[in-house]
Input
Amino acid sequence: MNKKKRLSIILPIYNEAKNLHLLYESLTKALDKKSKDFIYELIMINDGSLDDSWSIIQTLQQKNSHIMGINFSRNFGYQAALTAGYKHATGDAIITMDSDLQHPPELIDPMIKEWQKGYKIVYARRIDRQDTFLKKITARFYHYLLDSISEIKIPQGVSDFRLLDRQIVDEINQYHEKSRYLRGMIAWMGFDHTFVDFHQPSRQHDETKYTWSKLIKIAFDGIIGFSIIPLKLAAYAGFFVILTGTIMLGIITIDALFFQGQYPLFKWLVTILYIFIGVLFILLWILGEYIGRMYEELKGRPLFIIKEIKKIDPYINSWDR
Ligand code: UDP
Ligand code: MG
Output
C-alpha cells in the first residue's frame, strides 16, 4: 500500500464569521471524498478579524483535529496571511483559497488531478468575474500594465486560488521580501503550470474586504516589485527637458546674434535654469538606478531555481571511455 499524500488548505480569514460554518461544511465534504489517498490539514489564519471569526475557528478546531488555527495580533493583510499559511503548511500539495465561498471547494479534486499529472502549479481560473464593472476594468488595465512593463508574465484571470507543489512552497519560504505580491513571485519562478476553469459565484455575505486603498497598495507592490521602468521616468523627463531647453536657447541665441532680438537677462537665466532642471532629472535617474540595484539585491531573490538535477552515477566511470 502506498503512503498517503498530505494536502494543506490555507484559508486567510478576515471578518468571515458568517461564512465559516458553511465553508467548513463544504470543504470537509469535498475533502472526505479524497480521504482514501490524502490526509488533509486546514490552516485557518485569522487576520485580525473584528467579528468572532477566531472563536468560531477555535470551536471548529476542537471538533476536527485536522484544523490548525493561527491568530494574528492585528490585521496584517491578505499577502501576510498567505505567507503565514505557507510557512506552517506541511503538505505535499498546498492549496490557498478565499474563505468567503467565492472559491468552490469542488475544484480541489480537479486541481489535485492536474498536480498528480506533474504540474507544480495549478491555477483556478475564473471564466466570468462577478465583480463590479469598475473593478473588472481596473483589473484588466492593471494586468495589461504589469504585462507590458515587467519581466514576468502573470496569467490572465487567475486569483490566489491555486495549488502549489511542496517544492514551490519551500522556495517561497526562503524569500524574505516584505512588500510581496505572491501572484507575481510565483509567476516569476517559472515551472510548469496549468489551469482549472470555474465560474466565480457572487458573494454570499457582505462586501469585499479589499478596499480601494488596499488594492492600490497591492498594485504598487506588483509594479514596483517586478519592474524598474518607473525609475526610468526621471531619465525620460530629463532628456525631454534638456532637449527642449537647448532648442529654446538656440532659438534666442540665433535671434539675438543675427536678427537683433532683445532679451532681458532674466529670460536668458530662465532658459539656462530650465536646462539645468533637466540635468537634475538625469542625476535623479542615475541615483534611482543605484537605488534600484540595491532594491534588487535586498529582495534577495535567487539567481536561478533548479527544477531537478540528474546526478552523475558514481559507479559508472565515464572517464574511462
Ligand atoms: N482577507 C484577509 N485579510 C485582509 C483582507 C482579506 O485575510 O486584510 C481574506 C478574506 O477573509 C478572504 C480573502 O482574504 O478569505 C479574500 O478577500 P476578499 O474576498 O475580500 O477579496 P476579493 O474576493 O475581493 O478578491
Ligand atoms: Mg472574495
In short: Residues 98, 100, 102, 208 surround magnesium ion (ligand 2) (CB under 6 Å).
